[in-house]
Amino acid sequence: MREGADIDRFETQIRSEVEAISDFPAETEDAVVTQLGLTDFVVSIALTGPMAPGDLKVYAEEVRDRLLREPELSKVEVRGFSDRQFRVEVAKETLQHLGLSVQRLAEIIGKQSLDRPAGTLEATEREILIRFTDERRARHAFEDIVVRGGEGGAIVRLGDIATITDRFEVAEERILFNGERAALLDVIKRRDEDTLRVVDAVRRFIARERATAPPGVEIALTNDVASVVRDRLRLLSSNGLQGLLLVLVVMAAFFGLRYSFWVAMGLPTSFLGALAVMLLLGLTINMITMVALLLAIGLLMDDAIVIAENIAAHVERGADGMTAAIEGTREVLPGVFSSFATTVVVFLPLAFITGEIGAVLRALPIVLIAVMAVSLVEAFLILPAHLGHALAKRAEVAPGGVRARIEGAIAWTRERVLAVPSTSPSTNAICCWASSSVSSSPRWR
């Protein structure tokens, strides 16, 4: 399919072409046309125990059927086994005694183990598909096949003359878990299902299944994709909380708690706004979008802090709260907007990458720019109004003990350590080169 084309229309065209083929062999199963990439792997369940491989597969299929009864789960696949095979071994002398050949015996077995369509019954309101299902799926079912019948009613069954073994076609195709033969149940979800809810449902099922499992059977989770998702969510939450607390503490030390509160609120506001944009665009919280949110944590607080500091500087010069908010925001608007534009220029090209990599990375710049855009709107239109009121209240209340000490220490450092001391001829001598207008030779002053 060409990139950017309609996948649903493409699938319909393919299905129409396949259904138009009329020369398939009579015993061919119906062709199935389906889209790939509509599901995601979530977790695997490993089953091990002291049982034959065939019995292990049967047990795994029973567990799969019980697992699919959970409302949160929609698809489970069994891995670790090749195609099942029943081997029939008959002595050459026995076949000669019965007057059978190997080919004739195979035909007899095949005719008594069938699973094929048997036509269509057309009714008044609907069509009924008829299917003959008598395929032998167990060793004892093959042993019951009649091979030869006598005139007196005596019969010879396959189990009387043959050794039947239940095995797998490719013995090497197997999975070992902790050194033991294992069956893997791969749990797969649709794109619209929640990974964490699916894994939680699997964990609850395993807790119940372990209580009723046969002796010696071990059930374990492996290849858990949700663990990576949980770690990324935990990292996102912890980084956001640390950044929020850091802004609150540092800003409170210099400007007061009320002032720092409104500056710090830019972070959750920007994230909530970005989540609303993601919902409108059909984006979900996944590994790529969480990377974008982690990047945004380190960027979005800069604008609010720059605006807040400039507003506070205007208040210290004597301006009232609202005037300081308006003028302080207006002064830094070009610089803050330029910083936002720089971020857009750097990340926006990722949204135009073509191919599979582009399809994966496209969400990253969209989410990051959405967070920054919401932060910009909040910093220019909402934050100044809150800071204007907060600074008005701050001017009415004298600084507390802790903040008074901090401001005093900063003033002492600025005036005594960083400021250049004043100089006068009576107290200081400055060595320099001077050139006299009368004499051409330099002298010391």
Description:
By secondary structure, the chain is an alpha+beta fold. Among the domains are: 39-78 and 177-223, Alpha-Beta Plaits (2-Layer Sandwich); 227-416, Multidrug efflux transporter AcrB transmembrane fold, CATH 1.20.1640. It has 15 helices and 13 strands. The strands form 5 sheets. Strands 1, 2, 9, 10 and 11 form a 5-stranded antiparallel sheet that branches. Strands 3-8 form a two-stranded antiparallel ribbon. Strand 4 (114-122) and strand 5 (127-134) form a beta hairpin. Helix 8 crosses helix 15 (401-418) and helix 10 packs antiparallel against helix 14. It is elongated, with a radius of gyration of 39 Å.
Furnish the topology, listing elements before pairings.
Elements: H1 7-19, E1 39-48, H2 53-67, E2 75-79, E3 84-90, H3 92-98, H4 102-111, E4 114-122, E5 127-134, H5 139-143, E6 146-149, E7 155-157, H6 158-161, E8 162-168, E9 175-177, E10 180-190, H7 195-212, E11 218-222, H8 225-255, H9 257-264, H10 266-281, H11 287-316, H12 321-347, H13 355-361, H14 363-396, H15 401-418, E12 433-434, E13 443-444
Antiparallel strand pairs: 1-10, 1-11, 2-10, 3-8, 4-5, 6-7, 9-10, 12-13
